[in-house]
Structures are given as structure tokens and as C-alpha cells.
Amino acid sequence: MERKPSSKSDPQPLALGRDGEAQFERLRACLEVGRGFELFFCGFETPNVMDEVRRRLATAPPPGNEFEALPPAGPAVLPTLAEHLTALSRNAAGRKIVFASTLGWEEDLKGAWAQALRRLNERRNAIIRDCPNAVVLAGPSWLPWLAHDVAPDLWSVRTAIFTFPGPAPLPGRGTSSQIEQWRSGLPMAHELEAPVYYEELAAALEGSRRPGEQETRGRLLLRASAAWKLGGSYDPALQAATKAAEAFAASDDERMVAVSRGYIADILQQRGETDEALRIRREEELPVYERLGDVRERAVTMGKIADILQQRGETDEALRIRREEELPVYERLGDVRSRAVTMGQIADILQQRGETDEALRTWREEVVPVMQRLGDVRNAAVAMGKIANILEQRGETDEALRIRREEQLPVYERLGDVRERAVTMGKIADILEQRGETDEALRIHIEERLPVAERMGDVESIAHIRFCCAQIRLQRGGLEKGERQTVVNELAESFALLKRLQRANGVAAVGPLLGQCLAAVGEVDEALAVLDESADAFERLKLLDQAGQVRELQKVIRERAG
Amino acid sequence: MGDILRDALNACSFQSGLEADDPWRVDLHALGVRGRDFDPMIRLQTVIQTADKPTQQLFSGFIGSGKSTELKRLAANLRNDDYTVVFVDSEDYLNLNVPPRVNDLLATVAAGVDKFIQEDCRNGIAGPFKSYWERFRGLIGSGIEVEGLAISVPAVGELGLKLKQDVTLKARIYSYLERSGRLSDLAQACHDFLGEVIPVIANARPDHKGLVVIIDTFEKVRPTDLRQTEEVRQAVETIFIRDWKWLQLPCHVVYTVPSWLTFYEFGTGVDRVCILPMCRLMDRKTGKPVPAGFAAMREIIEKRMPMDQVFSDAGTLDTLIEASGGYPRDLLRMMREVLLSAAMKKISPPIPPDILTQLVEEVIRDQVRVYDKPIYDDDLPLLVEVARARDVPRATRTQAFRLAELFDHHFVLGYRNGEEWYDLHPLVRRSPKVQAALKQAHGKKAKQQE
What are φ and ψ of residue A491, in 5° steps? Predict the structure, then answer.
């Protein structure tokens, strides 16, 4: 998420320190005496200083100049800079100072600036001709040197370069609390929805010889992979992660190769290929972290192995790993948050094994208080949600509903987390459904959850919502009340989306219901085919009992059909 | 800040391609500091003036060495000699970030000439003459289908702009023509168009000696997507080597090309690329200063400001001139910084010599840092080789590209007196990284001799 310029919330001017003030004074003098087109590169060690320089120029532009800043729309705006500069009005009184800067993740900024600079390089003559203004390209400290490398024609017409150090320490308070890193926010939603965006940024760095840029490219590819995965496009997600691994391998970055392979394992795990996912974790990730002596990463990877085992129902070994391989490491490292997270995962396994008392105790005593003490309201709310899950499972729906409405929803609303809010609304709908309040449950799924999932391109949630709606309709006797086709359509859409997502567990779970509904409407062949896919999915997940039950169901349908 | 310093400072700001009659222009060739024996513009001009058929010539030079200014001089000289000269900025018609094809370059020539005749030779245009873009659209039609996709071809008035902006549209049109075996029709259409333009110009300017098209800024072709670097290089090679026959147009054409093509030997009919050197400030063999070079660079400053009113003693500026390596943009940039510092320190002009010395030293120190920072370790062996031989190795294609990058960044500058020679930019030579590499190389050599 775009970080707001600190100047808006903080009326106190930021001291730039001796060198920084000298640089600013020189920049201001340049802008004051200059005429016509001039090009300045400004590199900043921290965004706060950049904000301050922008603020000072905006509030008191040097005489004869009018200040104009690029819209703060994140790195995506940079590649259009050339067009922006040539389209600027020439009739404005005096000269403009065009301050082009933006915030964002460092990897995004590098890729976007590289693209922008190459375009400016190509359009150099037109810009000089059509933009009789002072152009200030402002960004992280590497910006001028990136321009040198990728835009030599532009570089040759530079007027001056300014490098601004971090802000001055405040007397008696150590370093200014206003210092923030460039990596200051979460990615914006539109970026998560657009993996191509990351791939294009990564492409801008392909072949670059500048030190560290292949690693940057690798990280962008990993983000592209994550974004593809979020949208359920597993093949491109795998390709991006594979390319990232290759980029890191070319830079001899063993750790990041392992991390990239971990991304691949995540994707495989999600689409049910747990054997290969386990092999990668055990044979390609673990040995690297062990060789590097990285006990934390080893513990994290062991945790991911436990995730897979838990998914396959191998809860004894999963529990052993959590208790013996993970917990002691976090305790030794004094990492209370990771310990609490692991305790929560242990509670999940206990719940899965039906040991709900111990699971409840763990959440209440080992997790929630820790998160609250750490001020982590989001994770405290998530933990409360887990408690509600168990209560709901035990039929204590009043308390479960209260937790959802009073302990979870307000937190997500306060944090502006629309996704988590929608998920919680879905859980409320589940409880209402359980209590027979099916109309309200259906309304929540369709009116509160679906629009958010559609807006975010969250295909998995859409599949889940369709499945939930069908279940509610079935519960309220929809088959008999003229909703037969709607139910079949919803289940079929959910099934198709899950197949597209290659979510074996989803295909396995939705298949039996869809199969039975299809059989009920006389589509026997289709029903049997769907059940076949469901049974295959259960088998792939090593859940052989469930697979057997689906095969049994097929037998019954065949017998009934004669 | 006083007006004198402010005016002097602004006079040192970047000026794009000075016209031949611009009062600030200094003719470095006439002063003999770019090689008395060889003036690329006179050579290009002479080839055109003495040829008995249309010529195609390639021209290159360092960024900021004054290519555009020199090409404008060429244009002015040829116009004075009654040639019709069309000066085309490739940037106006071509997307220089994607691999070019010979058709793109031909279209740039045709579109530039088209614009010229529509503006300047309307009276020579007879009845059925069609503009280049009318022909282009006529060849393609109003709509095409590529791989099942229906594409409408933009109207004549917006076709040029759309083809520049929309890379996909152009690729689809090329693909459409290629599949139907008609891609060469496009090149032929350019030839046909220019074939008809020649008489149109002759009608409008009966006494002119011929049409000369100067294609500027094509040397800036480089991809935004680095994956395409090799593709772009190969595309440029293909244009000037394999497709050369298509460039043999019915008029004289001068193309500016990327500097790495100066290392290529072309086949019959193509001269080696003419390259524009920097102003020579020292003798290659003795390393002694060349007074004429210093005088020429000083003249660049003198034409921009009243020296006696700005400086008490301009002699100190020789240090600044020497540090510029004969690269005018660097000299003006450093001069600007000196004047800004003086203004900020509230020094009233004329600037006294002791203060000027101090300001010059500060600016040079600062500019050494600017050159030092972006030097890669793996560039150092090549830089050491250039520093020692005062020349560039011409071995492999890959090395040519590496050198071209060093040229683009002005780490290596080219000079001429009797022969072409190269040296490190003086600010690069002073860089701590290069100094250390030179010292190390010297130590190795001494050890080998022992």
C-alpha cells in the first residue's frame, strides 16, 4: 500500500543534516537561476528526506518557477513519465519544476525506473523540445547510476546530480523516528491482481550487468509467481518461480535458490502434488539451510513439511515436528511470536484429531494473550476466529457468532482489510446456515462476500462462495423448491473453478455433492465422471478412505440407474 | 545573483544541436582540432557532390560530440550548394526501443520526405500523386485478419503515429504481409514513392542538384526490454548488411548509426562508418598539451560569456578544459557548476584567480566521483588496455559492444590527427578505481619483466 508522504501528517520540517541542507541549497539555487529545459537527478537514502525536499519545493518554489509533482500513483506511473513531460502545458507562466518521484517496493521501483529511463532516453529530443521545464527525477540513491547505465543519451544532457543522505539525528532522541525504509508498505491490490506487472518489471532487468540487479529480478519474479498463485494460475506461477531460481543460481545465491524452490513446493502442495512438494522441502530446501547453519529457516521449512503431513492426515508426525523441531528453536531464539504461531498450528492439529478441549486451551492461553501483548491485533483476531471455529464445531454457535461479530469484524474493518472482513462474513453465514437462518446466510455470501472476491480476482473464494450458496439452497430444500438448476449451476461453477485452480482438495470435496445433484437431475454419466475426478483427487491426497466412499457412491448411482 | 553570472551560467546549459549559423557554434574542424586531415562532414558532403549516382552513407559519433550540430552544418552546406535537404529525426517516426526492420527505416525516410513535400513542394505535386501513408494504407487495406483476429487499419491521417505507438499493430501488419509473401511490397512502395517524389521536387525546384535525406538519431536504437538487446543488434546488422540493397534509394541518404558499427567492415558499396571525434587536447605520443585544442575549447566558453567580466584571469580554466577531455558538454557542465558555486558564495564577478582555482578543483573532484561511481570492476581490464595503448582493441563482436558501452558512457573518448586514436576520459583516468587498476597492472608488468 502506498505510504502517505510524511509531510502531510507531520507539520514539523525534517532536518536534512549539514550535507543534506547543503545539497538542498544548491538544488534550490540551480532551480532559481536556471532557464528552460534542465535535468536533475536526485538520489535519496530515505524517502522521508525526499518527501521533505518535495514539500519544501512545493510550499515555497524558487522564484520564477511553478511546482508540479507527478501523481503519487506508485511505480506503475513511472513508465508514462515521458508522455507526461511532453504533454505538459507550455503556456504556463514561468517555468515548471516537474518533480518526478514515487514510493513503492524497492524491486518495483528499480524495474519501473529502468523502464521509465529507457523511454525518456528514446524520447530525449522531443522532451527537450517540448518541455522547457526543470525536470527533477527523484528516487532512491541508486537512481542516478541506473540512469547512467540504461539511458546514456539522457544522462549526457544532465544538468547536475544531487545525493541526499538520511535525515539528521534529532538531539537527545537518537535517530529520527521518521526514518522509514523504502520497503514501507504492502503491495497494492492492483499489483497483486496483475502478475504481468511484476514480470514486465523483471524483464526490464533481464541481462543487466549492474551488481545486484539479477537478484532484484529474481525477487520480482517470485512476486509474480505469488501473484499468479493467488489468481490460481499455477503454470505461470511455476514458470516464474523456476526463472527466479535460475536468476539466483546465476548469481550463486544458494539461499534464494532454496527460497525459490520453496515457492515451487508451495504451488505443488496447493495443487495436491504433495509427494514432489515434500521431496523439494526435504531434499532441496532443508540441506541448504542446514549447510548455511540457518536454524530459523530450517525450523520454518520443517513447519512447512508438517503442513503437508497435516494436509495428508499424518497428524502424529506433523505434531512431532511442531513440538520437537519447531518450538524448541523459537524458544531458544526468544522468538515469542513464532512460538505463538506454532502453538496455534499445534492447536489446529489437535482440533483435526478431535481434541477440542486442548485445542481451545492452547488458543486461549498460548496464542491470543501473546498476540495481544505484542499489539498484533490482526493475528489476535485471527486466533479468536480459530476459537470460534472450534465452538461452532461443538455446536456453541451463540458464542461463536459473538466472537465473529464483536471480536473479529471490528478489527478487520478498522484495518481496512476487506478480504478478511469478507472471509469473516462468510463464517458468520456458515453459523447462520447451521442455525437455519438460510436467507440471511445466502444474502451474506452473495452480497457481502462475492463482490469483494470478484474485485480481487480471488478465484478460490468465488469457488467457495458458489459451493456455500449451493449447500444453503440444498439445506432449505431448494431441490424441491425450483432451485434445482441453480444448485447444479453453482456447484458446477465451483467445481470448474477448483479444477482450473488445480485444487485437489476442493475437487475432492465438491465432487460428491455435485455428483449426487447431477444424478438427481438424471445426468448419470456426468455424475459418474465428476465422482471419478473426486475419487482421483482424494487418492492423490492420500485420503484413501474418502476415495473409497466416493467409489461406493458411484456404485449406488450405477445400480439405481439400472 | 548578479545578471552577469546568471547569464553566463545559463549560457552553459544544454543546447540541442546548434544551427550552422548559431553565434555560439565553434567549428572545431576548421580549427583543426578534430583532425586536419579528415572532416567527416566534408567527406560526406564531397561524396554526395562528386557521386554520379545516389549515395548511402553511415555516420556515427560519441553522444554529445555534436553529431546533430555537424549534420546541420552538412545540411546548410548542401543547401548552399542548391541541394534539397530533408532532415528527419527518427524519433518522430520510429519506436527506437524495438528491433527495427529495413521497412521501418525506409518508412522513416519516406514519411520524412512526404512531410517535407506536403509543406514545401505543394506546387510540384501533380494530380494522382498519393502521399506515402495513402500508399501504405492502400497496400494493406482498411482491415486485415491475422490469426483469426480482425484488425482495422487506422485512417491515413493517424497511421504514422499509430504505427510508432502501437508496436503490436505494426508487428501484425508485417506478419499479415509476410504470410502473403508481400512484405517486400512495402519496401518497394517506399522506393516507388521516392521515385515519384524526385520529379515532384524537380517541378517545385527546377534548379536543385538533388535530394539528400539526413536520418538523425537512429543511433539511439536500444531496447527498453534488455532481453531484446541482442535482437536489436542483430536487427541493425541485418538492415545494414543483409538488406543493404533495399537502402539503395533513388536519393542521397545519410544515416546516423550506433557507434559499435564503426568496428564493422561492410561489403562492397558501403564505406566504413564516418565517426565524429572529440576535440584533441594532447598529443597521442608525447602526452603534451595541444594549444590549439585548448584554444578551441576556450572559444566555446568565450562565445557564451564576456570572459573579462566573469573572470579576473581565465588562465585557470585550462585545468577545467584539460579535465573535460575535449568533450564540450562536460566542459560546459563543469563551467556551470563553477559559476553556481561562485554565485552561492556571493562572489562578485569578475571571479578572482585564487577563488576560481579553488572552485575548479572542487568541481573536478566532484565530477571524478560522478565518473568513478558507475565503473564496473569487469570494465577495468578494458579501460587499462585503452589507457596503456591509447587505442581500442578490435577483436570480437562482443568486444565491439563492450567498447560501444564505454563510448556511450564517455569513459573512452576518440580523437583524430592523421589517424583515429582513443584514450580514457581524464576524469575516468583520475578515478580511484581506475588508478588502482592501473597501478596493479603496472606492478604485474614490472614483475613479468623481472
Answer: -65, -40
Domain that holds residue A390: 315-408
Look at strands B149-152 and B143-146 and give their pairing.
Answer: antiparallel
pLDDT of residue A93: 59
Compute CA B204 distance to the chain's CA centroid, rounded to the nearest angstrom. 32
Strand partners, B156: none
Question: Does residue B165 sit at the A interface (CB-CB below 8 Å)?
Answer: no
Given A113, A141, A164, the domain boundary residue is A164
- Beta-carbon contacts of residue B184 (< 8 Å; ≥ 6 apart): none
On whether the pTM is more than 0.80, the answer is no
Buried b (16+ CB within 10 A) or exposed e, A180-213: bebebeebbeebbbbbebbbbbbbbbbbbebeeb
Q: Is the pLDDT of residue A123 over 70?
A: yes
Q: Hey, is the C-beta of A156 within 8 angstroms of any chain B C-beta?
A: yes
The partner residue sitting opposite B373, judged by closest CB among A125, A145, A206, is: A145
CB B147 within 8 A of CB B171: no
Q: Is residue A523 part of a domain?
A: no
* Cα–chain center distance at A557: 43
The reply to whether B155 touches chain A by the CB within 8 Å rule is no
Domain count of chain A? 2
Across the interface, do B226 and A204 touch by the CB < 8 Å criterion?
yes
- Give residue-wise pLDDT tens across range A334-369: 888 889 999 999 999 999 899 999 999 999 999 999
Of all helices (H) and strands (E), which one includes residue B48?
helix B40-50
Q: Which of A40, A78, A125 to mutate: most B Cβ within 10 Å?
A: A125
Tens digits of residue pLDDT in B25-66? 888 888 888 877 778 888 899 999 998 888 899 999 888 888
d(CA A427, CA A433): 10
Q: Which of these three, A368, A383, A408, is where a domain ends?
A: A408
CA distance A145 to chain B (A): 6
Q: State whether residue B1 sits within 8 Å of chain A by CB.
A: yes
Q: Give the integer Cα–Cα distance in Å for B110 and B93.
A: 10
